[in-house]
TrEMBL record:
Key words, A-Z: 4Fe-4S, Iron, Iron-sulfur, Metal-binding, Molybdenum, Oxidoreductase, Signal
Keyword 4Fe-4S tagged: yes
Pfam families documented for this protein: Molybdopterin
Species of the source: marine sediment metagenome
Domain Molybdopterin oxidoreductase residue range list: 12-182
InterPro entries: Mopterin_OxRdtase (IPR006656), Prok_Mopterin_Oxidored (IPR050612)
Name recorded for this polypeptide: Molybdopterin oxidoreductase domain-containing protein
Basic and acidic residues: bias regions: 204-217, 227-251
Keyword 4Fe-4S among UniProt keywords: yes
GO molecular function, one term: oxidoreductase activity
Region (Disordered): 191-257
Length: 287
């Protein structure tokens, strides 16, 4: 629950004016594929703009207002720089921050000060002025929404990337508004049966997060992840580079390694606000 909570959020594409897309191939492959693709097409037909950051010219990128080429796994740097632009220009939702977060505006501004567009350009390859102009258009063209998911998050820094996306939307005041990101609502059904107990026997599970199964050159480990047909194309498909075996992949040039620590990320974790767990103590944490 470091990102969306216990349910997936929804994007109100029917009423949005601006879509900021980080690596999601919405028109061909998405969690909510068919309805998501149709709503995206309808939004563009209604005049909404869509900027897509992707490592390849996907069909979604082709249909976008603009496609921005970005180095794989560096979406986080661009998003942090956009947050920096909002804070430095004083274009943020102060009321939202003061009401639903546990940090002050000054603390957040100070933390984001290091993540300049110029810094992000060196990491991502996206020109600083391009980052700055898109960030300003995003916050000024409300309601607006960010789409991401696997294209941006299937990397070693994926969780932090998704949390930064939520922070950007919170700063712009685009959470739980018409045309923005709608917090997921879980139904409170009463169970007619008792909750079954979990299995008593615990199995030893190979931890793929550290890349042990592939970094040691184990063909068995590779097969466990990709079958017997592991290829570089499989790893590069749809802007989805796995963190598993990243050290090994880096040797062959598949996963770009950061030249510096991206640092601690102030991130958004939203509770309440139409969520099934909402209540007087509901809050949004910037951790």
């Amino acid at each position: 629950e470091l990102t969306w909570g216990s349910h997936y959020d929804k994007w109100d594409l029917e009423n949005t004016k601006f879509i900021l897309n980080f690596g999601s191939n919405v028109l061909e492959a998405h969690t909510n594929h068919i309805p998501m693709a149709q709503r995206c097409v309808d939004a563009l037909a209604s005049g909404a703009k869509m900027y897509t950051f992707d490592v390849r010219l996907s069909n979604t990128a082709v249909k976008s207002t603009e496609w921005i080429l970005i180095k794989a796994g560096t979406d986080l740097a661009v998003i942090l720089a956009m947050c920096n632009v909002l804070m430095e220009n004083g274009i943020y939702d102060r009321k939202f921050i003061e009401t639903y977060t546990n940090v002050t505006v000054d603390e957040l501004k100070q933390h984001l000060s290091r993540y300049t567009p110029e810094w992000a350009e060196g990491v991502s390859g996206v020109p600083a002025e391009k980052i700055r102009s898109i960030a300003l258009e995003y916050v000024r063209t409300r309601p607006s929404v960010c789409i991401s998911y696997r294209g941006a998050v299937m990397h070693y820094n994926g969780v932090q990337t998704e949390r930064a996306v939520l922070m950007l939307e919170a700063l712009a005041g685009n959470i739980d508004i018409s045309g923005g990101r709608c917090r997921a609502v879980g139904a409170k059904w009463k169970s007619t049966i008792s909750t079954p107990k979990g299995p008593t026997k615990k199995l030893k599970i190979l931890d793929g997060e550290k890349g042990d199964s592939r970094s040691k050159g184990s063909s068995e480990g590779q097969s466990s992840w990709y079958g017997k047909h592991e290829t570089s194309a499989r790893r590069d498909h749809d802007h989805n580079l796995s963190r598993s075996g990243a050290d090994r992949d880096a040797t062959h040039g598949y996963v770009p390694q950061p030249q510096e620590d991206l640092g601690t990320i102030w991130v958004v974790n939203v509770y309440g606000m139409n969520d099934s767990r909402g209540g007087s103590d509901s809050s949004l944490d910037l951790v």
